[in-house]
Structures are given as C-alpha cells and as structure tokens.
Amino acid sequence: MAKHFSHGTLAAGIVGAEMGNDVFHKDQLELTGLRLILFNNEKIPAALGHKRDVIDIYSCSFNLDNPFTANAIESKTVLKGGVEKGRQGKGSIFVFSAGNNFGQNTKIHDRNMEFYASSIYTITIASVGRHGKRPKYVRPGACILAATFGDFRTWSGDILKSTSNWDSCAIFQGTSAAAARASGMIAIMLEANPRLTCRDVQYIIVLTSSLENVKRYGNSVQNAAGLKFDKYFGFGLMNATAMVLKARVWFPVARQLSYTTIFNKDSDKVFTSIVSSKTSVPPLKESLYPKLLEQVAVFVDIEISNTKVEDIDIVLKSPSKTLSYLLSHKKSNTTETKSLNGPAMIHWTFTSVHFWGELLTGEWKIFFKKNQEQESLFTIRNISISFYGVSDLKEASTIYSYIDPSDISNKSEIFDLAEEVFEFADEKYEEIKRNPQSATVAIGWIVGISSLTCLLIWCCLKGPCTRPIRGDN
C-alpha cells in the first residue's frame, strides 16, 4: 500500500498501544477506522457523526488547508449535536490536532484561522518537542487547550514510532501524533470514570496540564483564576497519571450556559493603525447566565485596507486584565507562509480558552493592531462576543486560586522578544554544528545577546511579590 495511506494506521497505533511497550495501557479500547478519501462538506460530517452513541472519542489527526473556511452548516451541526447528545447524553469527545505548518505553501499561521481547531466543541492539541522545546512547525492559537509529545516518546526519549502498513514500525511525528496520544490519555481517563462528560474531560485537562517542563522562554501568562497558559501549548503538557487520579474523584460540572453581546463602536470607519472597541457586561441572574468562564468566542466582521491578514494582531482583554491573542501576526523568523492578498477581510469567529475560570462581569476590550507603520482604513461591520461557562461558583475556591487583577501584567511583548532571541541562539548553535569554523563568532553572538535579553527580562519581572488569594465565591 502507498506510504501516504499509512497516516491513519500510524495514528491508530499511538491511540491503541498496549501495556509492555512503555506507552499506554487501555484494557477496554476498541478502535474504529473511518477513511476519508475526500475532505469535503459531506464526508467529514458523516464521519464525525458516525455511531455517536457507541464511539466515545473521535481522534482527528487532520485539518483544513485554507484559512477562514467555514466547513458548512453540516459540520457545525454535527459537532454541536455530538457534544450535546453523543455517548447517551455525556457528549462525544472530538480531539483535533493543532496542525503542522511546513514549507511556503501553507496559508495558516495561527490555528484560530482553521475551522475545526477554533471550534468550542473540539479539544485542540499541540505538539511538544524533545526537552520541552517548541517544534518549528507549531503555530500559536488561543484555541489550543493543551499539548503532549508529538516527536519523541518522552521528554528526552527516543523518536516516536508507531504501527504502519508495512512489516515494521515507522516514525510518526507532528501534531497528528500528539492528538493521537492525547486521545489515548483521554481513553485511559474514561476507563477510570466512564461517567465523564465531554466538558468534564476539558476541565480535567485544563486543571492537570502544566507548563513547568515546557521551554517557553517566559512566554506564559497567568490569568485571574491562577491558571498559566501559553499561546503555543495552551495550559501545558498533559499528564496522564494526574488526569486519571482526578477523573476517579471528579464531580460533574454544572450545565453550560452562554451569554452574547455586541461591542460598541465609535465609528464604522476609521483611518488609523490600531482600533479598539469595548463592551460592558453587567451582573446577570446566575441561574440563567454564566458567571464563571470556560471559553469565549468572538465574531469579527471587519475590513482593513493596505494590509494583509499576516500583519494583524487581534487581542481580547478581560475585566481582569488578562490578554489573549485571538489572532497573532506572522513572525518573520518563522517558516514562510503563503501571503493572503490585501485588503485584509475577516469574517470569522475566533475562540479563546485563556480566560478559563475567570469571572464574566465587567468591561471587555478588543484591539485590532497593524504591525506596519502606515495607517489603514478600518471598516467595522460587526463585532460580537459569546461567553460560555457555568453559574455555580460553590466549588470555584477549591479549583482556582484567584488573584487580584492589579497583580496581572501582560509581558507578552518582552517575552516574544526573548523567544526570538533564543530561537536565534538555537539557529546559531545548529550553524556551529554544520560549520565549526564559525564557532567563535556565533558563540559571541549567542552569549552577548542572550545575556542582555536575560537582564531585560529580569528587570521587567522584578517587583513586589504577589501571593494568590483564595476565592470566596
């Protein structure tokens, strides 16, 4: 069989690995293979809705190639229906790979630009490299919930291999492998507690994942609920042991509630390089609306002249001062991506998990920023925001460590600078290995710039110590 047809088999091998090969142990696991010859609006929904009362987890190691492509009403309906009615009402669990960005032909530089990754009904998983590094193919996304090893078996282990269509195992790497591994972890968790709903699974992943062993170069941010997140790895590296232990004692979360409002706009058209808009959410009746957040979805209908989508940042700010990049501009030092022609026209719903556990009430702000000096005409047609969460806060103080909003400061710009410097250092190190004669100059660059950057980060972070306080809600 042709080599490229082995992708699904490789993913299945990761999900279904058995005890004795140091990967997973799932006694009751049964696999169903659904082969999609054509990725279209008919085949994909049919696969995602196949026997949804029998299938617990849909492990999807694929993505759409084109940005801002809504995969028709059928896909939205099947995802929503699966989460609400699948598994006899407990909800189908849709695990999607965050996607790999290789070469110059790829068009997506932020995972929030892709339909399945950005859906509130899916669990989007990124890949972590050896020693906790970020693989070069990984792209940011506020929709990414967590990550796991997609290139190597463990933090410093051997290259990841899996079952193939040939007579031996084959190398299987990337976010496809990471999503398959995450699906395997969730399967173990369901063995420990089959009563878990799809939202219970999301909560457990959020609360047990950690950025402690992920090399972020200081790029993580802590939200007002005390949860640390990263734009590349979500809430961090998944921990199968912690997931199982928490699943055994987990009490089901309350039903999900939602609230939608629109952003105010001073003008439909404005000529500038940055635009902001805000909306205030008053205290709502707890039994009807969410008070404690899970996910946020922002619908944007805007056109920006004299620019491209790659040059735009869209940032959402919560009442607690947490910042989430709904869309990040394309960095010049990453793998080149195929440009989208200007003007930048965005008609899309972006999602973010970064406000998980925060309170809804207060003023929310959204910013549209160009990473170019010249001004452009911003034509704002519509901006709305939907909040998803629960109203019951009786257990919040035992789950989250709420901190004073005045103690939250977003240092993403200085951390982004640090990340670029350390990536530069990695490139110089690779250059040394290829050309030892350049070692002296390259090492000088690495030591000099890295030292200055560390000093800059230290100055930025130094200040009075803050101590998390326990929520009394």
From TrEMBL:
InterPro entries: Galactose-bd-like_sf, P_dom, Peptidase_S8/S53_dom, Peptidase_S8/S53_dom_sf. It holds the Pfam family Peptidase_S8. The chain crosses the membrane at residues 442-461. SUPFAM superfamilies: Galactose-binding domain-like (SSF49785), Subtilisin-like (SSF52743). Keywords: Cleavage on pair of basic residues, Hydrolase, Membrane, Protease, Serine protease, Transmembrane, Transmembrane helix. It comes from the Eukaryota. Residues 252-393 form the P/Homo B domain. Belongs to the peptidase S8 family. This is PCSK7-like protein.
